Amino acid sequence: MYKVDDCEIVSLPKIHNNAGNITVIENNITIPFDVKRVYYLYDVPMGSERGGHGHYELQQYIVALSGSFTFVLDDGICKKEVFLNDPSKALHIRPGIWREIKNFSSGSICLVLASAMYSEEDYLRDYNEFLNYRKDDTSTF
């Protein structure tokens, strides 16, 4: 089972010239899985929080396309905050990690690239259920 330290910021390829920048994300090349689902959060009111769940199997790459926000990652033992504000960087969130998103700046856009299609069965939506799930595999801590 993964820990928060297994979730890391990844530098994405950035091609720069005088006309601007381009960043490309390709399945199993710049991202370690096939992207099966793409969605983005935007127009999040200042002071609002999102997330508040974990996944049994799903992996995600998170990119701040515009603005900034903070992810709070939790493995049931340790917590880690990750600030995102650079569209050439992605946060790789591994399975079994609780996540919350806060401190959205005005105009922020949070892009999520997911390793699987939506499946309600993959969600851990109750924090106590999440802690029990993590406790069942304490051999990894």
TrEMBL record:
InterPro entries linked: QdtA_cupin_dom (IPR008894), RmlC-like_jellyroll (IPR014710), RmlC_Cupin_sf (IPR011051)
CDD domains for the chain: cupin_QdtA-like (cd20292)
Gene source species: Flavobacterium cutihirudinis
Domain Sugar 3,4-ketoisomerase QdtA cupin, first and last residues per copy: 6-134
Official protein name in the record: WxcM-like protein
One Pfam short name: FdtA
